[in-house]
Structures are given as structure tokens and as C-alpha cells.
Amino acid sequence: MISPNSMVTPDQLVRVVQTMAPEINVKETCYGCLAESDAKTMAAVMKKVREQYGNEVFSKVRGYPVGDPRRCRAQHGTRPGFAQLEAEWETLPLIQSALDAIDAGDTAYVAPVEKKPLPVKDLKQISEAYR
Amino acid sequence: MTIRIAQLSCGTEYSGVQYEIESAARSVGAKIVYPDVSYDQVKSALERFGFTPKSPQLQLMIARAVSLADGLYEADAVFITTCFRCAEAALVRNELRRFIQENTRLPVVTYSFTERLKASQLLTRMEALVTIVSRKELLARERQTGITAGLDSGSSTTKCVIMENNKIIGKAWTASGDVVQCATEVLEEAMKMAGIEFKQIEAMGTTGYGRFTLGTHFKAKLVQEELTVNSKGAVWLADRQRGEATIIDIGGMDNKAITVRDGVPDNFTMGGICAGASGRFLEMTARRLKVPIGELGSYAVKGNWVNAKMNSYCSVFGIQDLVTTLGAGKSFEDVAAAACHSVAEQVYEQQLQEVDVRHPIIQVGGTSLNKGLVKAIGEVLGEPPIVPPDSQYIGAVGGALLSSGVL
Amino acid sequence: MKIFIDPPNSMILFDLVERFGHEPLSSMALIQEKVDNIEVDMPPMNVTLDDVVKGLKYAGVEVPSGIRGRLAIWGPMIEAADAAIIIENPPFSFGCVGCDRSNELTKYRIKRRGIPALTVQYPSSEEEAKTMVGQIKDFLGGLKE
Fold it and tell me: Are B380 and B398 within one domain?
């Protein structure tokens, strides 16, 4: 899946991935591409994709084969997982910039702070101020 | 034409039942489709619908329903299904059913499943959805013509009706056993009563669990599930072919509650989870009381259910209740009334909650001959139901009526 | 090391774990095996009746079938994992993570297992994304065989 911030197009990605291994089946999608091969080849391909596209292209394993009618959008309409992938895709620019920062040596981050509810005593005071 | 059934569901793929759903749809010439929605549509749909379940898959269901209601996605029918025993899903399932009915003219059917899904029940629902969509004109038929026969092969009884020019001229029933043998028996008896021979029958319609077997055996012109057939039979018998009505059919194996508009079902529920809410329970009660099933109702109308409380959700425990009550010295009449009341209450609690009860209520099926049960249904619903003459023959009448449309 | 990711179908988590040199355990890979191995025209999707029955190990029969079916897939994955990363508040969780009850039970099973687990917040800004990615990198880097 290509990050929405990237200038890479699915069409370009498909052509490049296609050349990365002899035994690979690649299909263009709206968001990037589906690639199919044995696990070893795919691991090598993913390594090459990351080398070439850095933090612009993301990947995950897919349950169903490429073009499987059981999962194909054209056959039934979208499956539930599609909405999820779409939502994750929208977040990719944030992940991309975080990874870019780490690559640039900026590994510092703000530790998350847990928000605590306002003590009842304080809330009481505020409420009473409005009397 | 392939009928597109939009599936709004939660849990089907992880209960291992999606395959069954799709094959049931395929076997009746339909295809399961999922209304397309984007992630953003989910958010706006939840706002519009006004209910946000915790489970995202239920949120997606809502978005898909909104997409259908807004006409953004085309489908011919809607199938709403969720895991049995999930409270959150039950809330969404019922509210979505209502929402679809308020906002579209699409037929809807709901179903809650376990991993051991009942294929035949599912098939009946799918078939009914498809019939409603594809046989609109046939279902609009209000008069029977020529000489036709209807065979209803139910789980408890097998019934036959012969009609000529919109009148019943022959009828017969028997307890179900061998499907073909029982049907042959009732057909012959009905023909004898009508004074006709087999070759004079111009068309035949079969329905009920044995419909396919009988359809092949008798070369029937119409083989159709009992939901649409019974609806037609019920409104014909009750002379309520126009307008709205609710048909209640408490059967031996499953109960049906069907809402109809001009004789065509637009929503229905079929129960079948518990025998305690079926005609079978009344049979068991009669046997235990040692009274003929036909007389149970007469006992019941004389009794008062309040005196002998029975409210088990299961026929086994129900009979235990009955034994205890009899042991405590309660009268047969009170016990019979309590058994009828228990069935009526369960039909109300388990099934009628899933349809919007419309008036009048037409009670049909063999159990409608039980006056005690009819009285109990009236008490539970606050309105006495209409029981048309020959109310046990609805399926057979529907079969005869509709098959005259395919002469 | 084998890392259980929650949501188990998250692309972002899957990618980050792999990117940082570990093996993400995903529901997709398991489903792939099922889909490929059943030699019929249309195999049951995702889980079979047998799986749902196996799910009884994780939840009783009074629990809806969809929960047991999901746990039949995730339960063994959690048992096989060396560590886990959980996104606490994903704005998305459709498909196999569509059932909130199953998701809660999954988190509980991770806790019960007692393996190192990192919980991160789903980011809504660049700052938060840096926190999430940084936490994941540190967590994975700190795991010892």
C-alpha cells in the first residue's frame, strides 16, 4: 500500500515489483498492489521494496489469493476488512513521517501521559464558583 | 435474472456459516452482495442512525443499511443476520430491520445463527425472499381458477385441498409419516370428496418441508416455501386480500409470524429454537393429560392459566412443570389453559418482538383449531385473532390458489 | 521473535514489526493456509465448524459463535507469541476485529499469558505518530531471545 503522501503511483509500483523476482504475480489496486509468490521470494521482494521506496510503501500478508472471487470487490461488494484498510491507509502519512524522523536520527518522542479525571473536590469547587 | 440479496451481518465468517448462507442463496437463484461503504460513510451513517454499537462490525452493518436506505446501493432484498446470544447484535438486528422497512420497500428477513446453522430453515428464508422479488405477479393473484390441488407436507400433518373456480371442493389431512405415501393418501381422499379424478387436476402446488419430494413425485407446477404460500392461503381464507395483516402460524416444528401487505409477505420470522413454543408442546401436554389433542382446547377455555403457572422455555422443563402442577392437585382445565398460555407467551416473547404486529391478526395452522390457544393468543396480544374457516389448510389452499396462476 | 499484533489484521502493525526485524503473527497468514488447503470450489470462509468448536477452549458454549470462531484463530497465535503489541484505541477495526467482545477477550488472553506486551495509542497527529512508532521500535529493540 502506498502512503497517500507519496508520489509513487500504483502503476509504477507494479512495474517495479514485477521485475524484482521471476516467479511473482502482481496485480495493481487503487492503493498499491497485490503481489503473490512463495514466502521466501516475498520476504526478499519486501526487502527490496523497502530499500527502494523507504517509508512510502507499507505491506501486510493477505489471506486470500489475488483475484479470489470470494474476496473480490467486483463480485460481492467490499468485504469488512476493506474499510479497515482504507482507514489505515489514511494514517500512513503520519507513520511515514515518524519513520522518516527516526531514519534522520531523531529518535526522541514524548512519552504518552495518561489523562486522569478531575478530582471530585476540584469539580465541586468549580461548580460552586457558578452559584 | 439473479436476485441480489444484500447481507447485513456480524459474525458469519467467524462462525463458519458464510458458506452455508451463500450456497442457500445460490440454490434459489440469488446472490449475496455487500453494500459498498467507505470508512467515512461509516462515521456519518452512525450519526444519522443515532446508535453506536461498540462492535465495529455492527457499525459497518448500520452503514450498509443506510447506504441501502439512501439508494446508494442496489439490491432486491435484505438478509440481516447476527450471532445468536449476542445482546448487542440483537439490538442492532432488530433496529436495522425496522429502519430498512421504514426507508425502503425491500423485503427483509432476519436470522440469528449458531455455528450449527439449520440449513433447511435458512433455505426457506432465502427462497421466500427470492419468491417475493421474482414472483410479484404470481403473488398478486387473488382468485383461484380451473381445477387445482395444493399439497402441504408439514412436520406434523400433511394436508391436501382441491379447488375449483375459487371454491374448496375437496380437502383432507393426515398425520405426517412417509412424505409421498401420506400425500397420496390425502390427495385421494380429497379427490373422492371433490368427485374428480387425478387427470382432471390442471395444476398442483406443493409446500412445506416435503415440497421438493412431492413436487418431483407429482410433477407439480409450483413448488414453493411455506412463508409466501401460507400468506396467500391465509388472506384468501380470511378474505383479507387487501391491506395489512399479521399471520400467526404456530406449527409443529416451527412457528411463523408473517406481516403482509396486500397478501404479500414483507417481513417474517420463523422460530425453531425451542419446542416449548410450538404445537408439539401442546401435543405432549394432551398426551400427558390423556385427552385427545382435539379436545385440549375445550378444556383450556374452561380453565384459568393463573391457577397453574407454567412458563418454562423448554418443552422438557415445561412438561416437568406440568407434572408438578398436576401433582399439586390442579384441575385439568387449569393445566390445559396454562399450557396454551405458555405457548402463546413464548410466541409473543420470542417471535412477535421481531415483527411489527399489524392488524388484524389472522391465526392459522392446525393449532388454530385449539380454542384455548386462540384465546391465549388473544389475551397476550390484547386483541382476539381472526381464525378463518379451514384455517389448518392455509398451505394447501395457498398451493392450489397460486398454482392456478401457472396453468 | 514472534510478535502477536492486536488488531491482528492491522497493516500498520504488521509492517512496523517486520520493518524492525521481527516476525509478526497475523490472522491473514493463518487464513491463507485454510483458504489454500481446502480443495473444494468454495471452502468455508475463514473458519470451519471444527474451529468454532475448538474455540470452546477459550469461551463457553453460551458465548456467541463468532467470538469462539475468532478465538480459535487468535488463541493459538497468542500461545505461540514471544511478545505482543496492542493498539489501544484504533479508529478502525473491521473484518476479523469487528467484534468488540472478541477484542476484549484477546487483550485479556495476552495479559494472562504474561508475555512482554506494549500498549500504544493510535496516533492522530505527527507528534503522536512519533510516539507510537518510537515506542514500538524501542520495545522490539529491547526484546531479548
Answer: no
Interatomic CA distance for residues B250 and B228, integer angstroms = 16
Residues of chain C with pLDDT under 70: 34-46, 92-95, 145
**CB contact at 8 A, B284 and B315:** yes
Q: What mean pLDDT comes out for the span B128-137? A: 88
**Which helix H or strand E contains A41, and what residues bound it?**
helix A39-53
Do B14 and B105 reside in the same domain of the chain? yes
Domain boundaries, chain A: 10-129
pLDDT at C41 (0 to 100):
47
Cα–Cα distance measured from residue A112 to residue C124, given in angstroms and rounded to the nearest whole number:
13
Which residues of A fall within a CB distance of 8 Å from B35? 77
Sign of the Cα pseudo-torsion (C106, C109, C111, C113, in order):
negative
B114 shares its domain with B87: yes
The C-alpha angle with vertex C21 and arms to C17 and C27, in degrees rounded to 5, equals 40
pLDDT computed for residue C47 by the predictor: 79
Look at residue B179 in the predicted model and tell me its pLDDT: 95
Rounded to an integer, what distance in angstroms lies between the CA atom of residue C22 and that of residue C5? 11
Q: Which domain holds residue B188?
A: 139-228+394-406
> Looking at the domain assignment, is residue B159 inside a domain?
yes
Q: Considering its fold, how many domains does chain B have in total? A: 3
Flag if B54 and C69 touch (Cβ within 8 Å).
Answer: no
Q: Do C65 and B56 touch (CB under 8 A)?
A: no
Chains touching chain C, criterion 3+ CB pairs below 8 Å: A, B
- H/E run at residue C106: helix C100-113
- The tens digit of pLDDT for each residue in B5-15 reads 999 999 998 89
* pLDDT number for residue B125: 84
In this structure, what is the dihedral angle of CA atoms A69, A72, A75, A77, given to the nearest 10 degrees?
A: 150
Residue B278 φ then ψ, to 5°: -135, 175
Q: Which residues pair with B168 in a beta bridge?
A: B163
Question: Is B17 in the same domain as B35?
Answer: yes
Q: Which chains touch B (3 or more CB pairs under 8 A)?
A: A, C
Extended beta strands in C1-145, E state: 2-6, 23-25, 83-87, 117-120
Tens digit of each residue's pLDDT (9 = 90 or more) over B335-384: 889 889 988 988 888 778 777 788 899 999 888 999 999 999 999 999 99
Q: B370 near B392, Cβ under 8 Å?
A: no
Rg, chain C, Cα only:
16
pTM: 0.79
Can you read off the three cell numbers belonging to residue B165? 373456480
Contact C69 B19 (CB under 8 A): no
Q: Which of residues 3-42 of C touch B (CB under 8 A)?
A: 42
Strands (E), chain A: 25-28, 33-36
Are B211 and B245 contained in the same domain? no
Same domain, B272 and B331: yes
What count of residues does chain A have?
131
Complex ipTM: 0.86
Interatomic CA distance for residues B149 and B172, integer angstroms: 11
Q: Is B42 in contact with A83 (Cβ distance < 8 A)?
A: yes
Q: How far apart are CA C138 and CA C145, in angstroms?
A: 15
B176 contacts B153 by C-beta, under 8 angstroms: yes
